[in-house]
Structures are given as structure tokens and as C-alpha cells.
Specification:
single chain, six-stranded antiparallel sheet, 15 helices
């Protein structure tokens, strides 16, 4: 580890003295270690027994069967708005857990119960419990403390902060259920950053860094009210906050930091898509654990205060966003050519380089010397959008997709009798499987949209775009979306080859298709040009052409979800 910058601040007064009966495990260990799940749960049960303000609850089970717990701090009263805070979605980034234990203790027993006058606090100390219990000194080696840390992913090696949309993990389904039951006015997700060394210790951001949020009312509240309020509290407590600086190139910090849109796979993206103010906390990895935990405490306390003060304003912002009906979904973007802004006097840290015997190249060596420089902010410009249809039609046999729509709370209905419709269908052009990630084989492809008159069978599911979660439905069902079920590989049957037949029949069919379908001809010629192996393989050529020759083959390269027209095409931007 590089040397740490010296630090002291008023927030150090939050730490109780040794011997205090309500000292947290991290405080007792001098913030050198963090408690395991069983110790956390025992400590919280003890606090529950000692204070009527605290209740420990369960809300699901992990992949390995452990009970997921949350703590509700409340003075009672019906209909009180909720601030939901979670720690340890990446279990090696565990600052939120130990900060939350300290704050709960001080609310219950040390005079901070006024935080509960207008809001309830719901705190999930460890989201990724299975990963948390795989403690090792070699997990998250870039983070300065605690001595042993958990893993980023769950027991199936699924990163839960990539799973909000597709909901493959039981932990994710439990969390979405909790969010739906609470409908919080503020959701805070505690992390620790990667990147480069700098003077800032507590950084945070929102979906699209606020600038590229899909829903503006909640984004405006986060930018104009939450950010300034929390930054002021952190500065007064001796911390140095900033909106999370995500580096373009960690080896060259001066190249800039990135602001960009994001999808609902992430906590912040998901919150944005459903109209729920969501904050991503990214404490700086090289700051000592003690400093990071105290900064998180200050942020959480300030967040509760501003949420209580602005509860009516937040509710109005949520209602505005949920009443909106976007007509398009941004699906692709690219960096702009020039910076969209600058941070003057960015508080960096100096480094030099040396030739590493391990890597054989020059590597950075951070010097614990404060510097400032002008930091460019690199933004994004739209590259592709999709105009949304009136509705999507999901075949009744797509049980996995329908169940996930239900888990998200997306509205849909099943038809009881067949229905004749004019539909927009999608055919995949040259699909490719990506490397496996997050328990899935993602698919990339080009898409050909075409119109068709069909009779939809009874039992089919209609998902209207005109609903509060219409934008979330679009992100899951529009094939161009980077977080769609298609993109995540939910429909492997599309990639199975069409049934085969004799070569002389296929050749005649292919010849006719090439002569009569210019779209197929164009893609075929491109494959011949770009893929020598394909061009030299007669059977592959005939099989590819046969797969394009529907409608006799309802599965190969045909996206099973149809789009009920209004607007149904991709818009190149």
C-alpha cells in the first residue's frame, strides 16, 4: 500500500471509549477488523432487546441459505417515509455496515432519536452475506482495511450490483421485494472505490452522475438538495467529499473522469428507472478504514436529516417521474469529443513511476503528496435510441421472463381469447455469444425489424408501455437495450440451428433467398467478406441462409417477444 495522507476530523468524536458496553465490534478492534455475520446479528439482537426503537427482521435467504436481515429504527406511526441504507453488496467494501451499527446505537441509546421524528431508517448491514463470510486478506487488496474482507460476488459468483434487472440471485429478488414493500424516499448503497489516489475520502454519485438520469425530478432533488447538504455536513466533520470521480485512465488521471448514462443492472440505475432517489457511496479505497467508516456515518446521518426535511418534496418528485411516459429509450452512447466541464483545483495526489520486476513495465508509485490540477469531465452523446411501442407481447411459455416482470411489479395482463394484431417483430442478424459473466452468456447482434399481421394466442401476456414502470419494462424487453433479457442471454433457443435437410434443397432455397431478399443478401455478402472461415464452409453458408428463410422456423434468430405498434424502430443518432 502507498503511504496514507494524514487525517483528523471532528467525526472522530463519534467513536465511543474503550469499555463502553455498547461499543461496536469495529470500534473495539480499533477499526482493524470487521465483525462476521453471526457477530453482527448477535450485536443487533442485543440492541433490539435494549431499545424499543430497534427491530431486527428477516426478508429472504441467500444462495447458501443464510437469513438476510434488516433493522428498522422507528418511533412508530403509520405511513412514515423510509430511508433505506445497505452495506456490503460488494462484501469487501464493508464501510456501510460498521458505520450503520454505530449510528443505530446512537439513535437507540445516545440521544439521536430525533432523527426518527419524521422518517424511519431501514438498514441492511450485509447484503451479500455469503460473499461476506469468505473473508481473506487477499480479497480487495486495493482497499486499506479492514485486515480481512469478503468477496465482491455471491456464492454463485454473481455480482449483485449487476443483477437488479435480471434478478438471477435470490438475494436480488429479496432486495427488490424489500424495495417494493417499503417504497423508500431515499435509497443509499455503500461501496468503496477503485481507481487512483486523491485527497477526497468520501465520494458519492447518482444514476448517470445526475446529468444523464432517465427521470429528471428525482435527479434534480439529488443534485440540488442531497448533494450540497451532505457535502456541507461532511466538510464540517473534517472530511473531503466530491461527486464520485470515475477515471478514464487510472495510469493517467489527468485524462479526465467519466460521466455517463447507466442501465437498471446497477442500484443507482434501477432506482432511476423506477423513480426512486438512489445514492451510490464510493469511499476512497486508500483512506484508512477508520476514516472511511466515520465519513459514512456522517453521510448517513445527514441523509436522514435532509430526507426528513424534504419528505414532501421527494414524494412529489417521485410522483412526477412515475407519471411521466417517455417515448424513447436511450440504448447506446459514446464519449463526446471535448470535455463537458472541468473541476478546477482537483485535489489529487502526486505519483512517480518505476520499472516493476513483477510486470516488467513502468508502474505508479503514489507519494502521499497533495497536488491540484484541472480535471476534465468527459461526458457522453447518444448513439442509438429506440422509440417505444404501445406494448410488448410475451408468449405464455416464457415463464422465466414473466416471473421476473412480476417480481419487479411491472403491470401486465394475460388475454383469454386470441387477438388479431399488427405487430413489429425482430430477427437477429449475426448473433454472437459473449464471454460468460454474471451467470449468463450475453448475446450481441444486429436486429432487423419487420411488420407482420398475426393472431396472438390465448394466454399471451401484454405488457403496456403506459405504466409507472414502463421505462423499466422497456429496458428489459427492448432487444437493443444493454440490460434486456435478450442481451443477458435469456433466450438460448434462438441460437439453435434450424432443422437440416439435403444440400441440393438448401442450395436452391438459398439461391432464391439471395435473389429476392436484399437485406439477407447484404448481410450474407458481409459475412463472406469478413469471415473467411464462414466463406469457405459450404454447410455453414447453407445453414445460415436456411435460418433466415422463415416463417417455417419460429425459433432460430427470431426474438420471441413482439412489439405492438406505435413507433417500432431503432433510431440511429
Amino acid at each position: 500500500m502507498p503511504p496514507a495522507l494524514p487525517w483528523s476530523g471532528k467525526s472522530e468524536a463519534l467513536i465511543v471509549k474503550a469499555g463502553n458496553p455498547w461499543i461496536t465490534p469495529a470500534e473495539a478492534a480499533g477499526f482493524q477488523t470487521t465483525p462476521r455475520y453471526a457477530e453482527v446479528r448477535a450485536w443487533l439482537n442485543h440492541l433490539d432487546a435494549a431499545s424499543p426503537l430497534i427491530t431486527v427482521n428477516t426478508f429472504g435467504r441467500t444462495t447458501e441459505g443464510r437469513e438476510m436481515i434488516y433493522v428498522r429504527a422507528s418511533k412508530g406511526g403509520r405511513g412514515k417515509p423510509v430511508v433505506l441504507v445497505q452495506g456490503g453488496i460488494h462484501a469487501g467494501e464493508i464501510d456501510g455496515k460498521d458505520a450503520g451499527l454505530m449510528l443505530l446505537r446512537d439513535i437507540a441509546l445516545r440521544g439521536k432519536d430525533s432523527l426518527l421524528d419524521k422518517v424511519d431508517l431501514v438498514f441492511v448491514p450485509i447484503y451479500n452475506i455469503d460473499g461476506h463470510e469468505q473473508l481473506s486478506a487477499y480479497n480487495f487488496p486495493h482497499i486499506r482495511g479492514p485486515a480481512e474482507k469478503g468477496r465482491d460476488a455471491n456464492a454463485r459468483n454473481i455480482d449483485l450490483n449487476r443483477d437488479y434487472a435480471k434478478l438471477d440471485a435470490p438475494e436480488s429478488r429479496a432486495m427488490i421485494g424489500l424495495i417494493r414493500s417499503l417504497d423508500p424516499i431515499l435509497y443509499i448503497d455503500c461501496h468503496v472505490s477503485e481507481g487512483f489516489d486523491m485527497q477526497y475520502d468520501v465520494t458519492f454519485t447518482y444514476a448517470g452522475w445526475g446529468k444523464y438520469a432517465r427521470h429528471r425530478a428525482t435527479a434534480d432533488w439529488l443534485e440540488n438538495r442531497f448533494g450540497p447538504t451532505v457535502s456541507t455536513a461532511l466538510t464540517r466533520a473534517g472530511h473531503t467529499p466530491i461527486i464520485y470521480p470515475s477515471p478514464i485512465d487510472t495510469r493517467h488521471p489527468e485524462k479526465g473522469i467519466r460521466y455517463s448514462p447507466e442501465g437498471p443492472r446497477y442500484s443507482t440505475g434501477y432506482g432511476d428507472f423506477i423513480g426512486m432517489p438512489t445514492v451510490l457511496v464510493e469511499n476512497h479505497m486508500l483512506k484508512p478504514y477508520r476514516q472511511r467508516v466515520l465519513g459514512t456515518y456522517v453521510l448517513m446521518e445527514a441523509a436522514m436529516k435532509i430526507a426528513a426535511e424534504d419528505a414532501a418534496r421527494i414524494a412529489a418528485a417521485k410522483a412526477t417521474d412515475r407519471a411521466s411516459r417517455p417515448s424513447e429509450l436511450l440504448t447506446r452512447w459514446k464519449p463526446v469529443a471535448t470535455p463537458i466541464g472541468w473541476i478546477e483545483n482537483f485535489k489529487g495526489v502526486a505519483f512517480d513511476t518505476y520499472v516493476s520486476p513483477a510486470s516488467g513495465r513502468e508502474e505508479q508509485r503514489w507519494l502521499a503528496k497533495a497536488i491540484t490540477f484541472r480535471m476534465p469531465i468527459i461526458g457522453q452523446t447518444p448513439a442509438e435510441s429506440v422509440r417505444l411501442p404501445k406494448a410488448w407481447w410475451v408468449p405464455r411459455e416464457q415463464i422465466e421472463v414473466i416471473e421476473r416482470l412480476r417480481l419487479h411489479g411491472i403491470q401486465f395482463e394475460s388475454i383469454q381469447t386470441p387477438k388479431a394484431l399488427k405487430l413489429n417483430r425482430v430477427r437477429l442478424i449475426d448473433p454472437k455469444l459473449s464471454q460468460p459473466i454474471e451467470g449468463r452468456y450475453p448475446i450481441t447482434a444486429e436486429f432487423e425489424h419487420y411488420e407482420t399481421d398475426e393472431t396472438i394466442p390465448a394466454g399471451s401476456v401484454r405488457v403496456p408501455a403506459d405504466q409507472p414502470l414502463g421505462l423499466l419494462a422497456a429496458s428489459l424487453l427492448e432487444p437493443e437495450s444493454q440490460d434486456s433479457f435478450l442481451a443477458w442471454g435469456f433466450f438460448p433457443e434462438m441460437l439453435a440451428p434450424a432443422p437440416n435437410t439435403d444440400a441440393f434443397v438448401l442450395a436452391a432455397l438459398g439461391d432464391r433467398l439471395l435473389a429476392t431478399n436484399p437485406v439477407v443478401r447484404r448481410h450474407f455478402d458481409a459475412k463472406l467478406r469478413d469471415e473467411p472461415g464462414f466463406a469457405a464452409n459450404p454447410d455453414a453458408r447453407l445453414a445460415w441462409l436456411y435460418a433466415q428463410a422463415g416463417p417455417g422456423h419460429p425459433y432460430p434468430l427470431h426474438y420471441p417477444i413482439a412489439r405492438e405498434k406505435e413507433g417500432a424502430q431503432r433510431l440511429g443518432l
